[in-house]
Design a protein that fits this description.
With 120 residues, the protein is mainly beta. Helices cover 0% and strands 54% of the residues. The protein has no helices and 11 strands. Strands 2, 4, 5, 6, 9, 10 and 11 form a 7-stranded mixed sheet that branches. β7 and β8 form a beta hairpin.
């Protein structure tokens, strides 16, 4: 059973930085695309960043391009999200995610989330 555990959230001032980590277990981490999502109160969950299994391809939502960097260490079964130049609108619960297709159906796996609050 896939398990994802996020850490690294907290309170930071505008312009500050945080690094989120997501430790994975229960599946062959290195072959799976990993993503970070976020959700603010009253808003839908939003895809923030994606990284393929070998780390060769990354993608970002427009609002974080140039500020956030997704990376992974397949030896440690961990994916990271480095967040720089944080803005109040980045405040959200951040979730780590991956998915599998089982008998043709997509099954998503989520961590418990980590709160990021950007405020002065």
């Amino acid at each position: 059973q896939a398990q994802l555990v996020e850490s690294g959230g907290g309170l930071v001032q505008p312009g500050g930085s945080l690094r989120l980590s997501c430790a994975a277990s229960g599946f062959t981490f290195s072959i799976y695309t990993m993503t970070w999502y976020r959700q603010s109160p009253g808003k839908e969950r939003e895809l923030v960043a994606l990284i393929t299994g070998a780390g060769s391809t990354t993608n970002y939502t427009d609002s974080v391009k140039g500020r956030f960097t997704i990376s992974r260490d397949n030896a440690k079964n961990t994916v990271y999200l480095q967040m720089n130049s944080l803005k109040p609108e980045d405040t959200a619960v951040y979730y780590c995610n991956t998915w599998k297709y089982i008998s043709g159906s997509r099954h998503d796996y989520w961590g418990q989330g980590t709160q990021v609050t950007v405020s002065s």
